[in-house]
Write a structure and sequence with these properties.
Number of helices: 15
Helix content: 25-40%
Number of strands: 21
Radius of gyration: 25 Å
Distance between the termini: 41 Å
Shape: elongated
Number of domains: 3
Largest sheet: 9 strands, antiparallel
Structural class: alpha+beta
CATH topology of the largest domain: Beta-galactosidase, Chain A, domain 5
């Protein structure tokens, strides 16, 4: 294996690239003013797309009384408009100005909720509708708001007079023009995809000629080609992005059908690929794996999307483009990260989890990664990105990726894993497995980490081996001073008990139990934090196996099912 590029060279390249991109965006945007994007007012809305997100009419009641529970924060307006008050957090601001909460008003399905929705939309138009330089017009918020306004226009316009109808359409038209203008300068990623979804939706929901509809469809197609990999993964390597995109793409596809317009050519095969990718990252209990920024999602949200899955077949064994492995046998599923981080700006969301795995069986997840907080703050997200927050090996308490601390660049990856070599370890007896070796510790310590995983044919046993090696796969010598820790993060719903002989028993709520053993090192049970929980970070436990490679060339461990139905 070769060493990674030096941090200094990679960082210099990032600075040059980021400076040029910022300059290009600034030149492309030009002078921003509401007058510049004024124009004709549409005379009507043609269609209202569905919204697949879960709605709760009780939240509509809370909002009616001025209590806004958004973005993991809470604001009591005491009757004032929330748009004239300071947001308690950035997450709150994003959700408030994104207007996704309109779905709760629609679910309430009564005139009072409709009047409240209309009043709040009118407040926003008055306070922010022409502030194009404000955070409320950031592409990620603007695109979300337009999708919400199109989807929930029936509740906003229920009982509305002509004056409000015209103000509403005028504001939508201005926002669409502005979003169309800034779209080319949005960096590649989930936000850019959603921008193109919003603009395609606008071409269908507002009166538009065939050329405008085809142009929006063509630009959306480009994002399918650019961002959805052949194996169905997203270029971010985050499975949750697939779910987020499907939640907007499926209503858009149905809207094309409803208005009698031809689908973008890449849309149907692209959605089918996304479904394939989503199935790959699902555990035995139906939940998504926690890699590269994924967090927990409600079962209802996931099911509301999966019921539209028309793709056939089972999940693949390997995602060769996304660079993940999946071992499945019986009731057991193992998903492992075996790839380097995304390149360039996309690495801002990369987590240092190379060779980390998750283990599920039946209705329970047993071994997981810490995941990303549902509503993260900067400190929590920084901890969640560390290698120590993943079920893999850390060397000298150091992450396998190194992130920029520059405010100019943001948290891009500037060093660490650049190459991962994979070897198939399937056996004649039906056992399946792989070996992965990465260079994330080559630059700082001149070391490589190799991990081998094997799942038995019946799914009752997962065996693993971890080795710290010198480049060229040479063994450690006496003079090396590195210290390694293999961590196995236990899901917070799993009870954990260590026996006198060092073995660790993991028991799920339904009684299914797995035993952890390590042949040559006694494991420890340590306190831990599970970030990916709808209610916020949650205390849990982890199994930690500390070893010094100079004394212990490798550790061999296993998880074996000891009770539970087949």
């Amino acid at each position: 294996m070769t060493f990674s590029l030096s941090d200094s060279r990679r960082t210099t390249g990032f600075y040059v690239s980021e400076a040029w991109q910022r300059f290009a965006r600034r030149m492309a945007l030009g002078r921003i003013s509401a007058i510049r994007f004024a124009g004709a007012v549409p005379n009507r809305l043609i269609v209202a797309p569905i919204d697949l997100r879960v709605a709760d009419p009780h939240i509509a009641t809370e909002i009616y009384y001025g209590r806004f529970p958004l973005g993991g924060a809470f604001l009591d307006t005491e009757g004032a408009s929330p748009f004239g008050m300071s947001a308690p957090s950035q997450g709150f601001f994003t959700e408030l100005h994104g207007f996704g909460w309109l779905r709760h008003m629609r679910a309430a399905n009564h005139d009072l909720a409709a009047a409240n929705a209309r009043s709040l939309v009118d407040d926003w138009i008055t306070a922010h509708g022409r502030q194009l330089n404000s955070d409320a017009f950031k592409p990620e918020i603007l695109s979300t708001r337009l999708i919400a306004w199109f989807s929930h226009s029936p509740v906003v316009l229920r009982g509305a007079d002509h004056g409000f109808y015209r103000r509403f359409l005028k504001s939508i038209a201005l926002q669409v023009r502005f979003l169309r203008h800034v779209a080319p300068s949005v960096p590649v990623g989930e936000t850019r995809f959603r921008v193109r979804i919003a603009l395609a939706m606008a071409s269908l929901c507002l009166p538009a000629g065939p050329n405008a509809i085809r142009a929006a469809a063509r630009l959306l197609d480009e994002e399918f080609a650019r961002q959805i990999l052949p194996d169905g993964g997203h270029i971010s390597r985050n499975a949750q992005v697939l779910l987020n995109l499907l939640t907007d793409l499926l209503p858009l596809r149905q809207t094309y059908v409803n208005v009698g317009s031809r689908l973008p050519p890449r849309m149907t095969p692209g959605i089918d690929r996304i479904f394939t990718g989503l199935k790959f990252f699902r555990h035995s209990n139906g939940e998504l794996s926690l890699f590269n920024g994924a967090t927990t999602v409600s079962a209802d949200t996931l099911l509301s999307v999966l019921r539209y899955d028309d793709s056939s077949g089972q999940a693949f064994r390997e995602a060769p483009h996304s660079r993940f492995q999946r071992l499945a046998a019986g009731r057991t599923v193992v998903i492992a990260d075996t790839g380097p981080p995304p390149q360039g700006a996309m690495s801002r969301t990369a987590f240092a989890g190379c060779t980390a795995f998750e283990l599920s069986s039946g209705s329970s997840r047993f071994i997981v990664n810490a995941g990303n907080p549902f509503h993260p703050n900067e400190m929590q997200r920084s901890f969640a990105r560390m290698t120590a927050a993943h079920s893999t090996v850390t060397l000298n308490d150091t992450s396998s990726l190194r992130y920029s601390q520059s405010g100019f660049l943001g948290p891009v990856v500037i060093g660490g894993v650049s190459r991962v070599d994979i070897e198939n370890l399937d056996e004649a007896d039906g056992a399946i497995g792989f070996s992965a070796i990465h260079d994330g510790y080559a630059a700082p310590f001149d070391k490589l980490h190799r991990r081998e995983l094997r799942l038995s044919a019946d799914g009752h046993s997962l065996s693993g081996r971890d080795r710290i090696l010198r480049p060229g796969e040479r063994v450690i010598v006496a003079g090396d001073r590195e210290e390694a820790v293999a961590r196995f993060h236990v899901h917070p719903t799993i009870a954990i008990h260590q026996h006198d002989d060092g073995t660790v028993l993991l028991t799920a709520g339904d009684g299914e139990s797995w035993m952890f053993r390590c042949e040559n090192v006694r494991p420890d049970i340590e306190d831990d934090v599970h970030f990916a929980d709808l209610a916020g970070p949650r205390a849990c436990r982890q199994i930690a196996v500390a070893f010094a490679p100079r004394d212990c060339a490798e550790i061999n461990w296993s998880f074996s099912r000891v009770s539970g139905r087949d």
